[in-house]
Amino acid sequence: MTTRRPRERGVTVEDVARAAGVSRQTISNALNAPHRLKAETLERVSAVIEQLGYRPDQSARSLKSGTRRIIAYPTPVDDPANPNPLMGGFLEAVVAASGEAGYRILLVRPRPGQSQEQALDELIAARTVDGFLLSDVLRDDPRVAHLTAAGFPFAAFGRTAPGQPQSWADVDSAQAMIDLVGLIAARGHRRVAFLASTGGQPWMDDRRDGFLAGARRHHLTTQVYSVPGDDPAGIVAATRDLLSGRARPTAVVVSGDWLTLGVYTAARAEGLEIGEDLAVAAFDDLPITGFLQPALTTVRLPLRRIAEALINRLLRIIEDGVTPEAGLLLPGELVVRPSLGP
């Protein structure tokens, strides 16, 4: 095993290339665009860089390449007392993926009285960042339209409209729901309900559409309920109303994990056992889902794969000037637990 030596003042790129038996360009790729190298080459070069203690001059690299090696991430508004664990996991995955590529993430948000577009323009004008990473992308998202018009690099977690850069990656929520409904149908359920919070986000619409497509495919009887997202008592009341009818569903699919707390409460108030009298499944795989009794069947978002795809797509634009011609849909990961029953 080699031991790391203190950085020698005279160590150059040529020294590293000679020791690794590769070209200077390969060393540059290892430092600036590791995604271009084969895994074994990157591993060998990285080991030599570490052994020699070589550290490039960041200011010189920026001057030569014209990049700051910084990606701005406009963070979604959140409640510090009740943070969104899903987006926290996404941020961790983004920081890891960008760090592996030699970039840093700058968290940004408009100042009081400043629009989102003004905040983007401020960073672009200051030449502070090389590109933007957007999340929670909505239909007709003003940030996407603004960056498209400015011709500035960005990648989006969520789909952009036709005519805009297709540098996006997203979860195939509709197909994940179709697969989930197929699993429920295979267990003999014929009456299935879908509970969704109000709001109209595109990913929630995809989940609903996937549920309905799966139900049609398997000829299931369905009920679709919209429930108030910010009122726990309203969620419980709506679910009890759903479960108290004569032709109550034997399975309930919920648009997001957090709504299942109300479903569990309502089911037990109606004398129903989750996993026995009522199958329950949801979407997101929040940390709480494994601790519910019984543990919840859900669809997990592949956050690391999403983050890596977004960073790779953004770096292709920044470093190679190549904008992807099509977005990337990634499959959700079905996690089957006892709430679905035998």
Give a written overview of the molecule.
The protein is α/β, with parallel strands linked by helices. It has three domains: 13-56, lambda repressor-like DNA-binding domains (434 Repressor (Amino-terminal Domain)), CATH 1.10.260; 70-171 and 303-332, 3-Layer(aba) Sandwich (Rossmann fold), CATH 3.40.50.2300; 173-301 and 335-340, Rossmann fold. The protein is 42% helix and 15% strand. The chain contains twelve helices and twelve strands. The chain has helices spanning 13-20, 24-32, 39-52, 58-65, 85-100, 116-126, 142-150, 173-186, 202-217, 232-243, 260-269, 303-320; strands at residues 70-74, 104-108, 131-134, 154-157, 168-171, 191-197, 221-227, 251-254, 279-281, 298-300, 328-330, 333-335. The strands form three sheets. It has a six-stranded parallel β-sheet with strand order 2-1-3-4-5-11, sandwiched between helices. Helix 1 packs across helix 3 and helix 5 (85-100) packs across helix 12 (303-320). The termini are far apart. The relative contact order is 0.12. Residues 11-65 form the HTH lacI-type domain. Residues 8-55 form the HTH cro/C1-type domain. One of its GO terms (molecular function) is DNA binding. It comes from Nonomuraea typhae. This is LacI family DNA-binding transcriptional regulator.
Strand numbers in spatial order across the main sheet: 2-1-3-4-5-11
Q: Indicate the overall shape.
A: elongated
Residue stretches low in confidence (pLDDT < 50, at least 5 long) are: 1-9, 59-65
CATH superfamily of the largest domain: Response regulator
Helical coverage, percent range: 40-55%
What's the alpha carbon Rg, rounded to whole Å?
24 Å
| CATH architecture tag of the largest domain | 3-Layer(aba) Sandwich
- First-to-last CA distance: 52 Å
Class by alpha and beta content: alpha/beta
GO molecular function: DNA binding
Pfam family, one: Peripla_BP_3
Protein name: LacI family DNA-binding transcriptional regulator
Domain HTH lacI-type: 11-65
